[in-house]
Write a structure and sequence with these properties.
Blueprint: E1 3-7, H1 11-21, E2 28-33, H2 38-43, E3 46-49, H3 55-65, E4 69-72, H4 75-79, H5 82-88, E5 93-94, H6 98-105, H7 107-116, E6 125-128, H8 134-143, E7 148-152, E8 162-163, H9 171-182, E9 187-191, E10 196-204, E11 209-211, E12 216-217, E13 220-222, E14 226-229, E15 234-237, H10 248-269, E16 275-284, E17 287-294, H11 302-305, H12 313-321, E18 336-344, E19 356-360, E20 369-373, E21 376-382, E22 385-390, E23 396-402, H13 405-417, E24 423-424, H14 432-446
Parallel strand pairs: 1-2, 1-4, 2-3, 4-5
Antiparallel strand pairs: 6-9, 7-8, 7-9, 10-11, 10-16, 12-15, 13-14, 15-18, 16-17, 18-23, 18-24, 19-22, 20-23, 21-22
């Protein structure tokens, strides 16, 4: 009997739970959730509700269920040292130790590692712990004809980054924002990069690094990339596992950056990184640059890649833990995927909470449409109509899977459009119009 412990409550963890349950090992799942996600609860033998940093609750539950290993979804347990804590109890995890999770929890940590080990893809940057020198660094970028990006050093849930032109109109506004950040921690100032962003998630055991299909996320809340940044409104992947503006060489370059960072992390800390290294990259006219790393699966990108993974996910997890990834040949179906999130009206700044939404629940055997629950609680299921209460963040992810991006987008759009209640979504994700816009943008930058 294989017992697996899962930490997390979102759509990402729902997709992880589903991928684990598909295993021929027929595992029994146990979950620690921050709220009761109905999709995860349905797949679990047992679960508890606790805060992600409540290591006492985690320890008691782990001792009770005696898992072979733990899979950690969100960043908060990694930042709290859950991997170190479980390892002391003899339970290995798919997820990095706290010192390695700084890859995500500290932007300056990652930038400094890349600088120290001369790893390609590093933008011009400087980390500050006071206002001294910030104005001068912004002036220097300006003299070089570059705009700036202001980032809190720590975790921001994808919503703390401010970009010149988009969010900050002047140097004075930037300095005010820097002062606000410095009241809580370090601030990182970087050159603004022009290009197309993409997510490349990699499995790694600290030695081998294996990429998953490339995905493009959409951070802006509204159609045509307008509005405030969010945790991600949706994403798509192509049947050839590239993107319209990427070729195989770009994937090789991005994977090589991740491999070198993994090696540098071991050299620096003496610890092997075992888990997911998710690089947020950008293709510029100068080549591939790294925007940031996440120390876990992406949300929504997980919902694009795990449903089309052919290789047994439990075996992949074991290979990560036992450092045998170099023996694995991880396969994905040649399918396109489009993920669209239904989010509460008012999201992200003033989202509706406590109100009900409903939709017809698709068959669990439907491999062309997936539904993953996020920040919702179940209020009822009446003759296949799913009723859910909004908790205030992204609500439900609908994923279309097909042989072409056009068909996958159609499936996702049809499903998300049928949801009833105070929610909205971006109907342009995965459309030919938006994909063409991305391609034309890269042609313009490249001067083609």
């Amino acid at each position: 009997m294989v017992n697996i412990l899962l930490i997390g409550s979102g759509a990402r963890e729902h997709a992880i739970a589903e991928a684990l349950k598909k295993s021929t090992q027929n595992p029994s799942l146990y979950a620690l959730m921050a709220w009761k996600n109905p999709g995860i609860a349905e797949l679990c033998e047992e679960y508890i509700i606790a805060k992600y940093d409540d290591l006492d609750a985690l320890g008691k539950f782990a001792e009770k269920v005696n898992p072979e290993f733990c899979v950690i979804g969100p960043e908060a347990p990694l930042a709290a040292g859950a991997v170190d804590f479980l390892e002391e109890k003899g339970i290995p995890s798919v997820g990095p130790k706290k010192i390695l999770a700084q890859l995500e929890t500290s932007k300056s940590f990652t930038r400094n590692i890349m600088q120290k080990y001369s790893i390609a893809g590093l933008p011009k940057f400087h980390a500050f712990d006071s206002m001294d020198g910030i104005g001068e660094f912004i002036d220097m970028l300006s003299e070089e004809g570059k705009e700036f990006v202001i980032k809190p050093d720590g975790l921001t849930g994808g919503k703390g980054v401010m970009v010149q032109g988009d969010h900050l109109k002047s140097k004075d506004e930037a300095l005010v924002y820097c002062k606000e950040i410095l009241s809580k921690g370090k601030v990182v100032v970087e050159e603004k990069l022009d290009g197309e962003e993409f997510s490349l998630q990699c499995f790694t055991d600290g030695k081998a690094v294996i990429p998953m299909p490339a995905v493009q996320d959409h951070k802006r809340a509204f159609e045509d990339d307008k509005g405030p940044n969010t945790g991600g409104m949706g994403s798509y992947s192509m049947e050839n596992h590239l993107l319209p503006f990427l070729n195989k060489e770009h994937i090789i370059q991005a994977t090589d950056i991740t491999k070198k960072v993994a090696d540098a992390l071991f050299t620096e800390t003496g610890e092997y990184y075992k888990g997911i290294m998710y690089g947020g990259f950008i293709l510029t006219k100068e080549g591939i640059k790294l925007i940031e790393y996440n120390a876990r699966f992406g949300d929504p990108e997980t919902m694009n890649v795990l449903p089309i993974m052919i290789t047994d996910f439990v075996e992949v997890c074991r290979a990560i833990i036992n450092q045998e990834l170099d023996k694995m040949h991880i396969l994905f179906e040649s399918k396109a995927t489009v993920c669209k999130y239904a989010v509460p009206d008012g999201y992200p700044s003033n989202p509706k909470k406590g109100e009900e939404i409903s939709f017809a629940k698709p068959s669990s055997l439907n491999d062309k449409l997936k539904v993953y629950y996020a920040s919702v609680e179940e209020t009822g299921l009446v003759s296949s109509t799913q009723k859910l209460k909004l908790l205030g963040s992204r609500a439900v992810a609908f994923v279309g899977i097909a042989s072409s991006i056009k068909e996958a987008e159609k499936k996702a759009e049809e499903a998300v459009s049928k949801i009833k209640g105070p929610v909205f979504h971006r109907s342009d994700i995965g459309t030919e119009k938006l994909l063409s816009k991305r391609t034309e943008h890269m042609k313009k930058i490249s001067g083609i």
